[in-house]
Structures
1.
Amino acid sequence: MTQESAPNKPPIQQPLPLAFVNGEAMIDKPEDLYIPPDALEVILEAFEGPLDLLLYLIRKQKFDIVNLPVLQITQQYMEYVEVMKEIKLELAAEYLLMAAILAEVKSRLLLPKRADVDEDEDDPRAELIRRLQEYEAIKIAAQEMDALPRMERDVFTASAEPNEQVAPIKIQPEVSLQDLVLAFQSVMKKAKAFEHHQIEREVLSTRERMSRILELLNNHNYLGFETLFLVSEGKAGVVVTFLAILELVKESLVELVQAQPFSQIHLKLREAEEDAWQG
Amino acid sequence: MARLTHEQLKQIVEAAIFVADQPLSKEKLQSTVLDGLKVSNKKLDAALAELTLDYAPRGIQLIEVSSGFRFQSVDSLSHWLSKLWQEQAPRYSRALLETLSLIAYRQPITRGEIEDVRGVSVSSHIIKTLTEREWIKVVGHKEVPGRPSLYATTKGFLDYFGVKSLADLPPMQTIEVLPELEQQQQDEQRLKTVAEQIESDTVSQDSASDLAELGPNKEQLH
Amino acid sequence: MARLTHEQLKQIVEAAIFVADQPLSKEKLQSTVLDGLKVSNKKLDAALAELTLDYAPRGIQLIEVSSGFRFQSVDSLSHWLSKLWQEQAPRYSRALLETLSLIAYRQPITRGEIEDVRGVSVSSHIIKTLTEREWIKVVGHKEVPGRPSLYATTKGFLDYFGVKSLADLPPMQTIEVLPELEQQQQDEQRLKTVAEQIESDTVSQDSASDLAELGPNKEQLH
């Protein structure tokens, strides 16, 4: 077989026989299929199996499936299968099975009909016809599906960028009050293990007030001592504030400033001794 | 929060569909961008319908696919738009498309049943490709020897082919009415198919719920 | 190829910008979707200008960035659109909870002091997480070498845990030594002493006006 023909050569320029069978037999290539002579397995690829090949043969001869002319079809089918056997036997197994089915149908049709059998029930072609029709329906459905406008080929997703201000919302983990208390208990237990560190008990409201006074001092350079006491908070509030101030002074966080005896006392944040830390 | 005007609602819905990574369903719109805004479904429908109309004459369109709404380019522009990419869109073999069609129209279906209809074996490569593209998934196992997987199509499949549900796929050509002599056989076959369907309905909870989803399309499963 | 109408040009340009993965420059438009269509730059400019106007009232807009044109959601919608993306943050670590509890119960407190109690260093990540959640903040600096920040809890922290003040947090039971009764007595004694001291002072006229001045901060003192 000649090698000069490139696979992309138009089929009409190929006068060569499609294949040699048993040394000399040859068959025409299907009129509407291009099969390069040096790649006969393309037959197998061009058809999606024996049903597809049978359908092709039926449609090509303009036969009606329902009146499947088993004899002609079987003959044509066998020619193709002969070619396949020559070239690539292992690919032809499914086609051979169909050949056997066709042969069986053919032989049953040739048998004389028995009068006592209801002929309606026993057309040997029925199962094959059903399969051909079912396959054809799927074949057409696949073609129609292929024709549907689809992503990447016919339509493309249209999208816009979110504005830079669009930021994902984080769903924060939940924490219960109990989690917090348990964590504190555990940390305190651990702290006890480090015996060198002493934990002293403090009234919480005092610690809270310490935080608030520091916050206020961040916004005001000086705060009048008295301004921190609110009559509306009652005695207890006043005490808490006072203790907080004492604690802040003790921890060297704030200082009390009095310009002269009996003048107003002011609180201010303890001056940073900047120079001391820069070295 | 102050009530949204109709125009604001349209703007939010429009922008959300454009910036989202996936098609947005009405439920998703309500639970995200419209959360807390008390927009009735009727108003949302109206906004979506108006947006669809707004875009009708444009180069892109608002369409509803299986998993929600998305904007997509107009079909007729694909020739020009495909020049934006160096690579060609993937082409799919007939074998793959036939396998996919069988799964779409006859789901849930086993590989053996696909092979019966096509008359050839289905390559593992095809099943792998379809699974990796997330067009098909295993929804259960058929209670026959070997417990073969039952395949069904996914929402992603419908999205890709731009349809809302299986019922929107082109109707499958019904098998021609056979001469009377085969009618009985056909009936038997039909019965068998229905029986199998019922059987597979009970296969697993998963597939049962998937089938429920398919409800309106049942007639296509014949 | 037949000449494009103005509307066709707009549609192609619009769809191209929408479907492209990157902003599209005029050059890129000319070399891809408009390749071979002989569209003058003037016409392209006109189409882009019209599209910009078309989208002006919509939820997304056509804008030009350095690498070309793209569609982008409108500023004013950002608040709603953010809800499209929600991430579940990982659960808090034990270290974070312990740090938070120390800041709650021992505030104002420095990082060094937390480390002293916990016996291990406190990661910056923890402080950052707690600060971002607006549960803690810096209320000052301790005047020791390095001027470390003093951390305290916020009003947001109290709100989250549903307590009115820190005093309403569960008492720290494990803190050894003093039996409850003794502690209580001690507290009462302390209060009494201080209260008496303060009562004996006369509040000056001046401080009344100072208190008024402090007005806006009142709630911060609670």
2.
Amino acid sequence: MNTKSPYQIKIGKILSVKQMTSMEKMFEIALPGEDLSHAPGQFVEVSLLGIGEAPLSVSSSPTKQGSFELVVRKVGKLTGALHKLKAGDEVGIRGPFGQGFPVRILEGNDLLFVAGGLGIVPLRSLINFVIGNRKNFGKVDILLGCRNPKEMLFHEELAGWKERLDVNFNCTVDKADPDWKGNVGLITSLIPGVTLDSERTFAVVVGPPIMYKFVIMKLLDKNIPERQILISLERHMKCGLGKCGHCQIGNTYCCQDGPVFTYEKVKAIGGAI
Amino acid sequence: MNKPKVSFFDFACCEGCQLQIANMGELLLDVLGAIDVVEFREVMSEKWVGEFDVVFVEGSITTPQAIEHIKRLRARTKTLVAYGSCAAIGGVNGMKNNYKLEDIRKSVYGKDANFFPTVETKAIHQVVKVDYVIPGCPVYLPEVVAVLKAFLAGLPRPVPDNAVCVECKLNENICLYERGVACLGPITRAGCNSWCINHGNICYGCRGLVSNPNTKGAKDILEKYSLSVDLIANKMNMYNKCGENDNRE
Amino acid sequence: MQYNLLNKNQLNDLISFLAREQKVVAPVAQGLNNYAFTEIKNGIQATLNYIPTTLPPKKYFMPQRETLATYDTTQGQNMDPVVEHEKVALFGVHTCDLAGIQCLNMVFSEKPKDQNYLARKNAITIIGYECNAYCDRFASCRLVHNHTPNGGYDLFMTNLGDKFILHVNTPAGEKIIERSHLFSLAAKADLAALERLRQKKREIFEKNEIPIEHEKIPELFDKSYQSKVWADLDKRCVACGNCTNVCPSCYCFDVIDEPNLDLTTGRRYRQWDSCQNETFAKVAGGENFRKERGARQRHRYYRKFRFPIEKFSRFFCTGCGRCSRACMAKIDLKETLVSLIKEQGMENPNAGRQSTIAEKPATF
Amino acid sequence: MSKRNVMVNVEYLTRVEGHGNIVVNVKEGKLETCQLQIVEAPRFFEGMLQGRSIFEAQHITSRICGICACGHTLASIQAAEDAIGFIPSEQTIKLRKLLLHLENLDSHILHIYLLVAPDLLGVKSFVPLINSHNTVVRRALRMKKTCNDVCDVLVGRHVHPISSIVGGFTKLPTEKALDDMLHLLNGLKPDMDATVGLAATLKFPAFARDTEYVALVSDNNEYPMLMGDVGSTDGIRKNKKEYKVLTNEFVVPHSSAKHCKLSRDSFAVGALARFNLNADKLHPKAKAAAQAIGLKPKCINPYLNTAAQLIECIHSLEDSIAIIETLKQTGINHDEAIVVGLNENKMIPVKAGSGVGAVEVPRGILYHNYEVDDKGIIAKANCIIPTGQNINNMEHDMKKLVPEILNKTDEEITLALEMLIRAYDPCLSCSAHFLDVKFVNR
Ligand SMILES: Cc1cc2nc3c(=O)[nH]c(=O)nc-3n(C[C@H](O)[C@H](O)[C@H](O)COP(=O)(O)OP(=O)(O)OC[C@H]3O[C@@H](n4cnc5c(N)ncnc54)[C@H](O)[C@@H]3O)c2cc1C
Ligand code: SF4
Ligand code: SF4
Ligand code: SF4
């Protein structure tokens, strides 16, 4: 049989590893001889033979050539093992999988990014893409929330976004520490303060499961149409091929049909959020 | 590479789980190629005074001395494995907790009862922190090997949290409920390849209950089959009596 | 359409003929009215008068455990994909199970194609066998129009009493007919006998087993998401996973790595998983998207009766009744559907009676 | 001989199943203390059995000891069936005899190779043997695994067998299973021959003390393991129901340990006892092997218990094969399979009564006694394990041995005593209630 198994992995070389917080590390990975060619919002299945596979969002923008970045929180088997790797080590890569953010549709519109916790990881891919192609998009607002300042990722990049005049950036923490000078409170508290033109605004929301319900409520309060609210659903996934059933919600397989969906679509599927 | 220093200790138990090691056959030599067994009272006279990388503990804690001993072992080892049902969930020794300690002591030892200090039976994790759990009465060798490999690779290895029925069906057994017999498969953790049912017996729950068991549902099932509810209570505390002291999430 | 005849006493010869070229599996009695597809060497071992086997024939299409790759990491992340398959003749498959196989075929041929599944499928010859009456009270094949053959086989046998009449559906089936020299062409009278038998079946399977029209089922489920029925199932289900493991159209799996003791070589395999299992929908961070057993049961029913309608234009419930037979909590699929129907006031006691759709699958 | 002081205190006797301590105190050449103490955590099995159904007893008592789990299972079943007056079928009895043989074989091989051989080859445990005697270790593991695999086929597993219950078996071997077992057992023969060869080269310590040997006896030509009366080399013969008289537990003044005696100070059970009483009923191959290594009844060197075990291995192997072959001829009647369930699905009638099981397990006679009510619920349970019966004999051996070897070094004395205890293959984990523990001030 010479048809290719969909389970075949490509070898990825780790170019660098950076400790981001106590829980997260960033890995820069290259597929020798090729680009990943992903769209923002897509993910890859990262594999270590003998340990397993895990879906991880690509965090770097497609505009970055030659390598891509993953940000990994250590929670279990595979993620724990990844954290032990160093530059020069190999990982297996399958993908990219899924439907990323609909960049073509977003073009020409205003964008409101809402990221909670690790949600910034996949969003960063889109944000950097937008910044890299800034003239193609309207007004850009970025809202970021996390539990405490120590968990905040991409400090330098965030500072860069903050500096920019063509991007409005705001962030908050659930619980401050003595050094924190910024907002304190849930991410939902930042939304009312954003001025937006609901007709031409697309809201892109990524964060932990419990966040969606509350953020979406606030966005609907702002009259953003349901089909202009984009969210990413991260479910348990095994195959990435729309078969194993773990990520199925309603009729959709998050891995193939998602992870990015409009709220309009998600609302119609029972049990999605 | 330095081979990890491994030892075996036993508390109140039948030592059958240690014996399972000898049943590995020549595979044991491969295992011994990967680890360095430095103390194993049942088959070795050697003793080790230093630190251990991993200690396998068989048996439950039933005496005040054992409590002290297990604490000392915990302090001497990097990794601790609760090995077998007695260690993992209290196992059959837990049945003792069905009785008042004084009563059971007297019933067995009569006037000499005072020679036998005993405390409520406890699983190892109810006394000290445990890193790996291998339940089973006795342990299922493929699982022992799987945990050993996880340990060697530095990986976590939780006990499966689905029901024995899953494996039972994969093995295409006739369900015992069809025979009108109560089986603990639906609420017991898989991982033994439905060992007992494959051989015509029921599951006695020796691997411990799943994390979120529908015990009420299980009792209703008995009623549907006109089986007495005492029956399942009786079976459930055969191995899982100690578990009553865990606060389940 | 070509029909052939096989003498009753030549069944054994057919099995022997098949067994010369491949493994032959057929339903074998296990006692207590339980049956299992098992390898046989001669016809005596098989039984044709059986109720659906404990496990459906899916175990030959996607085995309980199936290696996907072997690996050796001594030189980095090197893996060799493995596609295991063997030649098998599946003998005596009922129409409900043929439908189950068709469901799986659709899922695994959808892009990205599952090469492991397809390689197995291509090595399997299927000989169907018609039920002339209900197997037991759990079956609901009429409701989902699987009580008569709708393709999905190489040969299909019907018992005419003193002989079998076989429908030849594929070139592979044709080959068996030609090469075994056991068959004769069916005469007009035989076809008439078959027609009489089918007519009789139409009487037996006159109405749907439950009072709802086939076409109304999606609507029933559209209305039932918040039904109290799920709360009832929540109390009763013990999440043993039997219902999904025995289901011919359940195909969820887990992917697991199993290293050898050297820790550098090993295999990656998949194993049946179940949406009823506690960990199935749990994600990092502890969130479990279907924490309640009732929600998992609802998911199961929707995956049989609602979700696949849009994607595959068919029900994934084959009507075999296995989930009801296998459930020790006696959660019965027919009863569940009836409760939903009653709750929505959608009862139609004559459902199915006028319909002539028995021969062709409905479209949505 | 110089008047010397010896203080031997072996804490945690290794390479025996379960925990025991040896305490020997010699002052000025005079033996003051000589004790074997059991420090096993008491497990209260007999207490836990109270209120349980006799149909569960086997499952629970099997957990008394993982090493002779099949033996406990069979003794428990016998006691239960005796209590309710159930008579097992011929087929069941054959299969139980087979199971007992497998247990005997398995346990003896473990003992001979992993526990005793290191002593005789002068190393601390079998681990160094992996390098020095690799083929021996491989053979040992292979043999052990084969025994285990045969048990897997017959009853699901050796440690805590699954399908052997009151009434019979929940799963009966298929034709293929019988063939598989035969194949495995026949494959064991070359290794068994090699084991006899090895034994012939080993030197057992010379020591003798005449004692009473107790084992099952019968009037037929079968080497009795599962059934029979209880007999002794001092001419006793009694029904198993009289087990209390036969074991005669008593308290001795110098220690708080309960001891057993029959016609004299102490008696011994186990392989050597069986050999001494029933050698003429052994399989011809076993007899030939006994001759080859020079073992004759009545042998009174306790160290040679290991040799007797070896002879029994051959007997058990050959007889197992014979049993399976007859089963193959008659065919297995699968209708006899028992459907398990607390009431065993009401297939087995229950009545009140008291029953005794007396079964030869690897270490000697194991007695279980249950008193049950008319619902089959256990009111009182009593288990007397072989090691409990042997303890007194071990102490008497030690008392005779120590003065004979006082000229040796402390290490040598310690080793000689450890080896003596190990020769009995004591199974102390079965700490049902057979001994009281004496906590000496150290
Ligand atoms: C589309 C998508 C994108 C993701 N992107 C990122 C990312 O960029 N960075 C990041 O750190 N994490 C991300 N995750 C989560 C990540 O996949 C899980 O943390 C990871 O699979 C856990 O694997 P493990 O072997 O370390 O954990 P395990 O040891 O297997 O289990 C630990 C916990 O993780 C859960 N879990 C196991 N497998 C999965 C799975 N496949 N999906 C979700 N949860 C699982 C388990 O239920 C358990 O609660 C993403 C998940 C999805 C679905
Ligand atoms: S026999 Fe027991 S383990 Fe097997 S399916 Fe039935 S209840 Fe579950
Ligand atoms: S089937 Fe049940 S009792 Fe038997 S080994 Fe498995 S968990 Fe233990
Ligand atoms: S078989 Fe019954 S009890 Fe088991 S998961 Fe399915 S519905 Fe629940």
3.
Amino acid sequence: MKNPFIIYIIQRILQCIVVIFIGTTVTFVIPRLVPSTNPVETAIARAQMMGQYTDPKAVDEMRRVLKKLYGLEGTTFQQYIRYWGSVLRGDFGPSFSSFPTPVMTLIRVSLSWTAGLLLLTTILSWIIGTLLGGLAGYFSEKPWARILEIFTNAIRPIPYYIMALLMLILFSYVLPLFPRGGAFAIGLTPTFSWQFIRSVIIHAFLPALSLIVVGIGGWFQNMRVLVSNVIREDYVVYAETLNISPQDILYKYVIRNAALPQLTGLALQLGMIFSGALITEVVFNYPGLGFLLYTGILRGDYSLIMGITFFSIVAIAVGALIIDLLYPLFDPRVRYT
Amino acid sequence: MTVLQIDKIKAYYKINAYGNQRTVKAVDNVSLEIEEDETFGIAGESSCGKSTLIKVISGTIKPPLTIIEGKVIYNFGDESIYIGKVNGQEEIGKVTWEKVSYIPQSSMSVLNPVMKVRDIFYDLLKSHKKTMEKEVFNETIKEHLNSLGLPIEVLDLYPHQLSGGMRQRVIIALATIFRPKVILADEPTSALDVVVQQSVLQLLREIQNENKNTLILVSHDMSILANIANRIGIMYAGKIVEVAKVKDIFENPMHPYTKFLINSIPRIGDKSDRLSIPGFPPSLADPPNGCRFHPRCPYVMDICKEKSPLLCEVAEGHNVACFLTSEESEDGKY
Amino acid sequence: MENTEKLLTVKDITKVFTRGSLLSRISFTAVNNVSFEIEANKPEIFAIVGESGSGKTTLARIILHLIEPTSGQILYRGKDITKIKSKRDRIEFMSTVQPIFQNPFETFNPLKRVDSYLYETALNYKITNKSNLERFIADILNSVGLSIEEVKGRYLHEFSGGQIQRLSVARALIVRPSLLVADEPVSMLDVSLRMSIVNLFKELKNDQNVSIIYITHDLATAYYISDRIAIMFRGDVVELGPVEAVLARPLHPYTRVLKEAVPEPTPTQKWGGKINFSAIEIEEFSRVGCKFAGRCQSVMEICKKAEPKYSSVDNRMVKCWLYK
Amino acid sequence: MFNIIKDLFKFDGRFRFSIITLLCIILFSLLSFWSPYDPSSSYYVPSNIPPSAKYLFGTNSRGQDIFWMMTFAIKNSLIFGIITALLSRILSIFVGLISGYKGGIIDKVLMSINDSFIVLPLLPILILLKFIIGRMELTTLALVMAVFGWSWDARLIRSQVLSLRERDFTYTSVFSGMGTLKITFKEYFPFIIPIVLATTVNNMLWSLGMEITLAILGLSTVEIPTIGTTIYWANQHQALISGIWWWLTFPVIISIFLFLALYLLSVSLSEYLDPRLRIQQARV
């Protein structure tokens, strides 16, 4: 009999491919939604109207790239295949606003900043949220659990932008503890000197804090509900009658089982968290993908936006796949029949 | 020597949901004495309070269940555990697994799905005998499983990989590892097939003969109790209505409910008509006053509607709570 | 049409379940070519007894046309139900056979008034017109020992298990079916209340000549109520015949083991004998030859290799190599 | 339905808070009909005056009275949220019912598309879409958001329908002569309504949050006053740096209250309407 573990992996990889396929098709279809005859011209017209002065060489290069990208000749199907060809090679042509640098190099530079911020905050908020939620769910009568619940209930519905704004107002205007934005003090060159790293941490602190606080609210509430269900399960009641030590029951029985659906939730929420990170970067003009996207919008840099959109779809799909592949390690029912 | 004394225990569920308060009188003034080296069967049908009684005896009392009155005392010669109401305060003694163990209904979800059977044993032993090195632990487990005829490979399996019968054996192994004085079993085989049920009950009987422990077995199936119990207590609507040796219960049942219970069991080879008890079990939230069986009892008398009969000895070792056989009611002579 | 028309003919019904997605095919045979017949003019109670995983519920679902068999035919009065396409055929089929389910509290929608099902059935099958609908329903309820006042406008949670099973029978009787398929109808009820429902089934057979297929794992109730009995094990019908003969002198080793395992409600006859069992169930499903070979006391070499054929002994069908 | 609200109001503090807050916000937004100023005009009051008796919320640097601007902003945002939530219900109920009821291949295909929409990062896609299409009134934006907002809820409705199909009363209904449509509406809807209600409120929460995000990026039609565009104009005029704190604080406070009220409403509603819970209460 085939091992269910392999079936699970194949299914998850297939799902990841489907996500990338649908994402790419959506980004291919969107420009064609515009009823006008030639999407390239409309794109360039819109870009020029939005952006500042652009030298003619950049406009011609843009037209060449977009023509190639869209390849207006041939049937939509041929365009579609050519579109896949250039996309898979990551060739979105040069960025319109900061001409001749290709879009991909811009993305690669700001990617390291977003990745740093996003990975750290997502994992931290997931772990803290899950642990705190688990404890609050298990000791639900204790006063500290009640306070925590009310506090997170208040935080959870606040969208990323509003929380980022609040943090900015509180911690850099009202009490000026942190800088107002940017990733490191001006004039410092990115080296691994302690001074540079210290400055990066100080600058990244507020965006990270705001992302974590919003994240924790969500994970806390989900975990608290999951735990309040798991406590009533037969194996927990039985473990209690076995007088197994309360710590073991809490961690090995309650949190261990309640964290499984929480992990699937993380894979599904990755898209939302990523969008949240983008907007938080804009508030703190933290030089990640979000800020790059924002400048792209201001300057009407069409191919940059296209590149970032495609790149974020692939990144999120792969991220969700990784989390899904972690799941069987924690759930033996998937590993063995 | 009486190993477990249950003295006028009253345990109710106080439920408050969206404004309507209800108290479910699950166990209402129950008194029992259970001896050492005895298999005591508690027979009762759905919502008669037998599972609540087991919860009270095993000390697993969590809201909304609270003890209103009475006490449960274990005495193991050297040590005694007290559960019950002391001047208004609910006191629940620590019922440790070494002395009193518990076998739940063999449902699929009793063992932790993400842990191997070995780790469950390890947690149990760790929490009781703090210093347990790996080798000593492996040794004790292997020897214990062999004594129960269980294959050793079971230790490395996960609960979802075990069959129903095997899972119930693992639960019995967990319950008997410390050779406890009292084993409580709540419908241990009702979720199993007939053939597997027979082998599991034979295993319980062998363990009881070997260790001379007390086995308290709760079941809705009188035929099982006939095969395994020495004494049987019949429970109805939160009260014990009859207690006697197994032979007396089946050959000379005195309480009308017991008579009905035995007569309504179909037997292979006998197609004679079987009758059901008219009406349906009372709700424990507002039980009928007087004797709780009176709305369904064919021999009902006026006294039955006002007073609740006391469980008292009618013949040698045979107690009945019915006005047909005694005049005493729970609140004094009528 | 054959001369003595059969109410129900089950011909070589097999059902193979395949689990897992398109890449992996784990399949096991839940029902393995089962055949039997129910006479049209002679109402009888036909019991199908087996443990969990024996395929009895799958067989019931196939007979009720709720799931499609992998192979084989189900004929009602000579008409094959797998050919049912039009709504008219469906209504005609459902007015000959009606189901009774195991869990009373799952039989009706808890959020809807229970009597709405009675009116719904009566109107959909056009049994009576609107005017004397109330009286018709009241009569049906009386025939199962319930009164209209007890039932009017009440919800599921206001009834006991026994009452709901009676309601379920009443709903089924509205269409005057000739066959009821009851899948473990009393296993969720208290022993002391089961007899009232079981006796109700006997009355239906005798007074309203309704045939009943009674599916259970409880051999004693099956003996009490049925005329003919089929013992199922891992998808095979291992023994089929009149209930007195089958249970007085069980031929198939599994029937013998099953009968001995049933606890007698008398303290004198305690269980003897030692039972061996397979640690992991999956093994038994995929076993070649006779599926009971792993546990059978009188197992022979041939049992492990070839699947036994049916032989007719003492007017019973037995599927075992001991009998040729 | 009325007694549900009465029960909830009496016993569930969260529900009481959310109903009161929502009523205040709706009343506040209705004031916009008596607004002395036309929302699209500007510079009709002296600008940058901190909150005072005359101008409750103060005025902004575009010479608009923030109090009356906020009444329009809340009204438009609420309308936008409701339209998106209702439009996305159609898709989520449709997909949820079909894949839950049909099962098999259709279910697998629909669900893999559905899961992809859940995982996709919607912000960059919406930005790309907005960037291409440019001008878009609120209703078309609501339509676009509805196209992306149905996948979470379709998944919930599907799992509910799947579990209902396995329950015996579905077969009882089939054998009572009821057709598929009748079963779906008469038998399943009392189970589906609580999910639809709770997820509608959740969807409003999501779409309002998204509207703010798009407005701040300058992608929604900035003339129409909504919570998002108010904050957008505040950013454009560097409200924080030049010390006009009241321009930002009032929209932020009101939106926090609005989001909190909507969230608590959806939590208390789904907890109360959960059929399992209701049956338990009745049976005890």
